[in-house]
Each structure stands twice: as structure tokens, then as C-alpha cells.
Amino acid sequence: MKQALLSVRGLTVDARTPQGLRRVLDSVSFDLNEGETLCLAGESGSGKSVTSLAIMGLLPGASLRVSAGEILFDGQSLLTLPQRALRHLRGGDIAMIFQEPMTSLNPIMTIGAQMAEAIRAHGRDGQESAEVLTRQMLDAVHMNDAARRLTQYPHELSGGMRQRVMIAMALSCRPKVLIADEPTTALDVTVQAQILTLLRELRREFSTSILLITHDMGVVAEMADRVAVMRGGRLEEQGDSLDIFERPQQDYTRQLLAAVPRLGSLAGTDAPPRITAPTGESPVLSTWPVLDVQGLCVSYARPRGWLGRGAEKTPNTVESVSFSIPAGQTLGLVGESGSGKSTTGKAVLGLIPFSGQVELDGREVRAGQSPVLMRPIRRTAQMIFQDPYASLDPRMCIGDAIAEPLLIHGIANASERRDHVAALLGRVGLSPDVATRYPHEFSGGQRQRICIARALALKPKLIVSDESVAALDVSVRAKVLDLMLELQEQLGLSYLFISHDMAVIERMSHQVAVMRGGHIVEIGSRRQIFENPADDYTRCLMQAVPIPDPRRYRQSA
């Protein structure tokens, strides 16, 4: 019998609110055994991350407190451990990979300095210098050009690269328990497969126990020995992963499994599924492409010389990219992190310098155009960014945030803007009453709905969606994707839909473009790409997608 290395017993956490205490965790109990992987699954707001923060002793004392229960690590109580001993334990014997790497990394320290600091703080460098170990760990998580990455700052890396840095930092001290809070959310499927393989190797080699928090049921199936399903701060059910997937006892668990997008489920069809019944009325669509891109190239100059004077020419990040999006259709852009997907999305909206030809609804977009000339283009196309929390001003209520584009473009008076905001909130499934609330008062899925409402404020013809559902759990993601499809049917919207999730791309797209190293290696209809891929890289992406079937992984182990 394996011994419990980490035990949570009756853990109860209360939140302080103006109305009094509100229970956010209610008598949560589970064991994490030596060398085992336990997955916590559930919707956002179910208490998964609060549980992990309570174990790490990182709950913000001003707003959250443990009111009952105990947490035991290797026989010692973490709730009564002195702060000095807890700091030594935290990051050493118990390490954590956080969900949002940009807010977890120090923006004024280089990657190498941050990683070396963690290694030295826990005395884990041994005979090798911390600098050598940081390089080895970046190589272990398959970071390209690791030596250069050590000298860069967090803002210079893509979201997937930053997450790999967080994983490398957590693994560098060889922890006994690794708490991974959505560790592969920002990663493409091939890198995700590499990271999951790395975690399994660490578990085998060092008997590391893993508490994995994820909304991806494919990852749960691949990684979990046992699964605990959470809802509303309570454990709905827990058990062996085969039992949870094949014989779920609770309706909520069955709903989670039913919401998982499955690659190949739309085989034989040419378009995304309809969300609303045909009404006989269709939006009037233009006869030319909403977006036409020819020979798009993007490169970033790197400073050099004394005090950064001059610039060093670097290879193009995006090279000779061409595609078009017809009115009312979606082009899915898929590829690994660093392949140039997000750069392409920003370039076609004129947010970064580029060369080549870009036309939006018949208007030419030029690099360095003045704000005055860009204003009509902004009304034609909007962007939904990956991180909704970072996209919203925390000091601005969401009603003002949604109305801001109308104000900038001088559309409507104050009363009409309020009515328009209320209508937009209703359209994305939120009550107009929430207009006076602030971003921190919403869940991740609700914040993404707010960003969609803001993007719709100017009635654009094109929306660039950059990993807009990557951080959402499966049930919320399904609702947001259905919302986007419904809006496309009703308004005739076109989407440039950027994602690393092949199942999501299959669900949303009419056409698919596969990017690698700044180039489009394959482009075609959804049916062509998914049923008869011509490029080995496309086949590799599809084979790396986790399948929500734990029996498959146990048979291949």
C-alpha cells in the first residue's frame, strides 16, 4: 500500500465579504499518495485553486482564511508550521506551477536570474552552479535557444514559453509534491505532450507526487491515477480515473465529460454546427473577402551596441503568410507556441509593424498608419485577447469598459450608450445589472464574455480571437464557443480564430491554416485538413491531442 504523503482533512475556507463570511471550501478531504497523480477537476469557481493555495500557505489573509480542517505533509501539519519552516518547505519539498505565468514572474528580472534565485534559496544547486542547472532545466522543458532565453525578460517570451519557464523553475528543486495549477493551459498540443511526458518521467524517477488541477479532461485521462471532481467548494465524487470516466456517479461529472470537444466528432461535415434554428433571415454579406492577406512578413529588431544604440536584424517571425477570410466564415489558425500565430493576428490589425499587403473590408492596412487613418479600420475589426483579466482596466466598471469604444468613436449619446451596453451584455448571456461591477468580481468565463461584448460594441465585420478560450474549463469553454458561433450566424461575423487546441479549431472553422516557424505549412478546408492532412507536422499536431479515455493510456503504459 502506498502511504499518503499529503493529506487534506475537512478543509474549510471562508471569504470575508461586506455581507459577512462566505464559505468557498466546505469540508474538502483527499489523500495524495507517494508517486501518485491526483487530478482535481471542475468548473472555474469550484474551489480547485483555493485548495492548492491553502496547501501552499498562500491564501491572502485579508480576504480568505482556513476556518476548519487540517493539512498534513509527511506527517506534519502545514497549518501550524512556523512561517520560516513553511518558506523552506514551499518551493523545495512542495512546489507549485501557477496558471498565469505573466503575473507569477518578476517583470524586472531576467529568466535566468529568477530561476537561479529559486535554486539558491533552497540550496539545491549542489556541485553544479545554479546557472548550469537553469540551462539544463530549460532544455528539459524543450525551450528553444535556451541560452538566449536566460538573458530575456518575461515580456519578451510568448505565453507558452513563459509557462515552460514556470514548469522548469518548479522542477528545478526536485520536489516531493508538485502542485500544478493548469500547467498546460497556454501550451500547444505537441509541447503539452512533451510536458506531460516530463511530469511522468519526474514521477517515475523521483517518486514525485503530483496534484494536477486542470479543466482538460483529455489531460486528466492521460495523467490521473485518481480523480476528484469539485463543484461549488465541495467534492462531488472521487475515485479511480477509470471509474470516473466510465461509471460516473454524479450528474455534474457526466455533464463535464459530455462537454469535452472530441477530435473527429465533426468528420464528414464542411462547416461548424448550427447553434440556432434557421429563421429564413440571413445577414447581408459582402461579395469580397473581409480580410485578404498577401505576403505578410513581421520581424523584431533587437537592440545592440553601447546603450542599445542601433538594431540587430533578426530572422522574420512571420514569413510570406497569405490567406483570405470570406464574409461570415472562420479561418482557424493553429500551430505551436512561437509559430507566429499571435503575431499574425496583431499584424493584420495594424497593432505591430509589418510588410506585405493587408486589406480589411476593402481598406488597405499599412504599417505605421496614423490613428486617424486607422480609426475606420478599428470599426471594421476588433480583437479578443487570450487573457481577459489583463485586457480589462481593473479601475473601470465593465459597463464603462464596453462603452469606451463607442465614446472614442463618438457614437451615440450617454443614454443611448447605456442602452447599447445593456443590450450587448444580454447578447453574451449576462444580466444588464452587472454593468456597475468591476472585472475582479467575475469568473474567467464571465470576463471573456465581457471582452466579447466589448469587441461587438462597434459592430465589426471581423474579430481576431487570440486563444480566447484557452484558459476556460470545458463546460464554460463550450458555452463561449456556442456563443461565438451563434453571433456569427446572427451577425454574419468573420473570425480569425487562433488556438493551439485542435478539437476547438475543428469545431469553429470553415478553413484551417497550420503554422510552423512563421510559415503556413498547410491551408485548406476544415474537412481537408482534419480528414486528409498533407503535411507531417499537421499529422503530428493531431496525434498529440489527448484523448479523454484513460483505458487507452493504461493499455499503452
Automatic annotation (TrEMBL):
CDD domains: ABC_NikE_OppD_transporters (cd03257)
Pfam hit, one: oligo_HPY
Protein name in the entry: Glutathione import ATP-binding protein GsiA
Record note on quaternary structure: The complex is composed of two ATP-binding proteins (GsiA), two transmembrane proteins (GsiC and GsiD) and a solute-binding protein (GsiB).
Gene3D superfamilies assigned to the protein according to its UniProt record, in alphabetical order: P-loop containing nucleotide triphosphate hydrolases (3.40.50.300)
Species this chain originates from: Hylemonella gracilis
InterPro entries: AAA+_ATPase, ABC_transp_ATP-bind, ABC_transporter-like_ATP-bd, ABC_transporter-like_CS, Oligopep_ABC_C, P-loop_NTPase
Entry GO CC: plasma membrane
Membrane-topology annotation of the record: Peripheral membrane protein
Molecular-function GO terms, alphabetical: ATP binding; ATP hydrolysis activity
Family the UniProt entry places it in: Belongs to the ABC transporter superfamily. Glutathione importer (TC 3.A.1.5.11) family.
Single Gene Ontology BP annotation: peptide transport
The protein's enzyme class: translocase
Matching SMART domains: AAA (SM00382)
Record's subcellular location: Cell inner membrane; Membrane
Enzyme Commission no: 7.4.2.10
